[in-house]
Design brief:
GO biological process, one term: L-proline biosynthetic process
Family: Belongs to the gamma-glutamyl phosphate reductase family.
Largest sheet: 7 strands, parallel
Protein name: Gamma-glutamyl phosphate reductase
Helix content: 40-55%
Keywords: Amino-acid biosynthesis, Cytoplasm, NADP, Oxidoreductase, Proline biosynthesis
Number of domains: 2
Shape: globular
CATH topology of the largest domain: Aldehyde Dehydrogenase, Chain A, domain 1
Number of strands: 16
Oligomer: single chain
Catalytic activity: L-glutamate 5-semialdehyde + phosphate + NADP(+) = L-glutamyl 5-phosphate + NADPH + H(+)
Strand content: 15-25%
């Protein structure tokens, strides 16, 4: 066994042991723990922000782009938001222990299913220190231990955040190893974690396509894939074009570096000549640049803007920046065909006042979240009322879309008889 494998084995053993202490923890004890974590984070806020400043300085020196720097940033306002999300999770019901489908069978056996924790969850993520808190809080609320491996860009931030969480665990009489951080940037440790099926029950990668593919190919543990959002919005011929502008601007501009931000705008040909110059002018004023099909490039000339030529590569790109692809489509069917070809299965939307077009779009588009007359930016655990999220799953088993508390549970069958024998 290599040194890296030995290190990860030790983490896994400690996490599994800690998970036993959490599995049957009463709901009121979990609530007290989460309140203690929020208090520790508030108390450590100055140290957290100072550590994040170190990470930001190192990231700028390393030449990281603006999108990555925005993900990395943890200022006072964002830290307050993270702590506020803990309060939201505290207010949510505890799914662990819920009885499902209780029934009496003909053979006399009383059979039910009960929600139970998964056990130990491994989460691999990049430059988002908020994920450290979100994952830990959701895992602990559902009685799971967690092993965290953040990106090297957030190492200083993650160390301070994890230290505060572990202090809260100890203060509540629980094992600190319920939350562990892999604090080495050595990538071989990731490979070792992916093969820790003896101790880890689920892997959640939160990062780009390369990380997702690595986990899918190397893991001997079930992996939840997601977090890559090539998101589309279709402006139908029956849309209210004036109101549409604000929704599109929100989807693209409010926070362009996240996975639910808009990447490609599809415009019905019947309204393209009227709408494309308007939307290009409005978004350009907000700093957006464009890629467009031939029709888009010709029509946008009226706004004094000429997008770069779009191609298969640009339509298949998750921009994570103030860049937007635009394509004119013949009708709803062509819009759906485009989405099926290029979508990552994250979030899609239609703007229309035609209820039949809306229903057809919702039925035909098979993504984790599909919206009518709303921004794609709503695909978020907090916005969905889940308190926070582990990830946004773009697969279909066992969780899909924003993963909240229930996604961190499984169930076991419980059978009660009267010394019942099978015939």
């Amino acid at each position: 066994m290599t040194e890296q494998e030995s290190t990860i084995q030790a983490l896994g053993q400690r996490a599994k042991q800690a998970s036993y202490a959490l599995a049957n923890l009463a709901s009121n004890k979990k609530q007290a723990l989460l309140r203690a974590i929020a208090a520790e984070l508030r108390q450590a806020s100055a140290a957290i922000i100072a550590a994040n400043a170190q990470d930001l300085a190192a990231a700028r020196q390393a030449g990281l782009d603006a999108a990555m720097l925005d993900r990395l940033l943890l200022d006072e306002a964002r830290l307050d938001g993270i702590i506020a999300d803990i309060d939201k999770v505290i207010a949510l019901g505890d799914p662990v222990g819920q009885e499902l489908d209780s029934r009496l069978l003909d053979n006399g056996l009383r059979l039910s299913r009960r929600r139970v924790p998964l056990g130990v969850i491994g989460v691999i993520y990049e430059a988002r220190p908020n994920v450290t808190v979100d994952i830990a809080v959701l895992a602990l609320k559902t009685g799971n231990a967690v092993i965290l491996r953040g990106g090297k860009e957030t190492l200083a931030s993650n160390k301070v955040l994890t230290s505060a969480i572990r202090q809260a665990l100890v203060a509540q009489g629980l094992p600190a190893d319920a939350v562990q951080l892999i604090d080495s940037p050595d990538r071989s440790l990731v490979s070792a974690l992916l093969k820790l099926d003896k101790y880890v029950d689920m892997i959640v990668p939160r990062g780009g396509a390369q990380l997702q593919r690595l986990c899918a190919e190397q893991a001997t543990i079930p992996v939840i894939l997601g977090g890559i959002g090539i998101c589309h919005l279709f402006v139908d011929e029956a849309a209210d074009l004036k109101r549409a502008v604000d929704v599109i601007a929100n989807a693209k501009v409010q926070r362009p570096t996240v996975c639910n931000a808009l990447d490609t705008l599809l415009v019905h040909r019947a309204i393209a000549a009227e709408f494309i110059p308007v939307i290009c002018r409005e978004l350009a004023a907000l700093g957006v640049t464009f890629y467009g099909c031939e029709q888009t490039r010709a029509l946008s000339a009226a706004s004094g803007i000429t997008p770069l030529a779009a191609d298969d590569e640009s339509y298949a790109t998750e921009w994570l920046s103030l860049t937007l692809g635009i394509r004119v489509v013949q009708d709803l069917d062509e819009a759906v065909a485009h989405i099926r070809r290029y979508s990552s299965g994250h979030s899609e939307a239609i703007l229309t006042d035609n209820i039949h077009a809306a229903a057809e779009f919702m039925n035909q588009v098979d993504s984790a979240a599909v919206y009518v007359n709303a921004s794609t930016r709503f695909t978020d655990g907090s916005e969905f009322g889940l308190g926070a999220e582990v990830a946004v799953s773009t697969q279909k088993l066992h969780a899909r879309g924003p993963m909240g508390l229930e996604a961190l549970t499984t169930y076991k069958w419980l059978g009660t008889g009267d010394y019942t024998r099978r015939k």
